[in-house]
Amino acid sequence: MQELEHLDHDSLKGAIEALLLVSTDAVPATDLSSILGVEPSEAASALAELSAEYSDANRGFQLREVAGGWRLFTHPAYHDVVERYVLSWDTRKLSQAALETLAVIAYHQPVTREGVKAVRGVNSDGVIASLKEKGLVREMGHERDRSRATLFGTTPRFLETFGLKSLKELPPLEDFAPDEESKRFIRERLSGRAISSTLEEAADDIDEEQELMGDDYADEDLDAPAVNAMGEKDEPPSPQPDAQDDGSQEVDG
C-alpha cells in the first residue's frame, strides 16, 4: 500500500478521483487535503487540473465545484440517455407537485407553509414533508409574529442535486413571469395580502356590464316593427274579407 505522505502529483489526482467516486456529497478541498495529508493548495490545484482534463477530453462526466465542495456529475450532453436509464429504476424522482413546491421554497426562502400554499393554490404540507425526507428542504426557524409558523428553506443537497454553487446561480425569477401582472400577483400572494382588490375589480366589471345590458334593453322600442333580411319592415298581415255567399253549392258526383 502506497504511503499517503509520499504521493506524487499524478497519484494525488488518482487518489482524489477515488475519493470522489465513493462520495455521495460534494467534498471540500480542505477535507480532501486533510485525508490525503497534503496542503489545501495542492488539493485545490489537483481538483482544478482534473476538471480541466475531463472537459478537454470530452468525457462522459464532469468535475464541478458546487455547494462549497467538489463533485462528479454526468456530462450535460448525455442527460437524455441518463434520464431514460435513471427513470427506469428511480422510485424517488420528484413529482410535478414536488418540483413546484421546491421552486417556491428555493426562490422565496425562508417561506412558511401558508406562503407556499398562497403561490400554488393548494395545501402543500405533504409535499414539504416529502422534500424534507429527501434532504432537499429544511426548517429554518419560525416567524416572529404570533403565529410562530415554521419557515422552510433549501439544503446543501439541493445545491448539489441541481449543480449550483449557491442560490445566486438560480435562474432569474423574471424568466418565469413574462409580464408585470404575473409578477405583481406572485408578490401579493407571497406577502400574504388578500387578492380582494382583484375580486372587487372583477365584480365591478360584471356590474358595469349588467348595467350596460340593462340600458340597451331599455333603449329598445319594443313596438317598432321588425326588419327582415331584405331590410324591409315586416308589416302584420291585413285581415282578409269573408268570402261572399253567392248561393252556389258544390255537389258531389
Briefly summarize what is shown:
The chain has 253 residues and is mainly alpha-helical.
Characterization of this structure:
α2 (about 30-35) packs across α3 (about 40-55) and α5 crosses α7 (about 125-135). Among the domains are: about 5-80, Winged helix-like DNA-binding domain superfamily/Winged helix DNA-binding domain (Arc Repressor Mutant, subunit A, Orthogonal Bundle); about 95-170, Winged helix-like DNA-binding domain superfamily/Winged helix DNA-binding domain (Arc Repressor Mutant, subunit A, Orthogonal Bundle), CATH 1.10.10.10. It has ten helices and five strands, in the order αααββααβααββααα. The model is unreliable at about 195-200, about 215-220, about 225-230 and about 245-253 (pLDDT under 50). By secondary structure, it is mainly α. The protein has helices at about 10-20, 30-35, 40-55, 80-85, 95-110, 115-120, 125-135, 155-160, 180-190, 195-220, and strands spanning about 60-65, 70-75, 110, 135-140, 150-155.
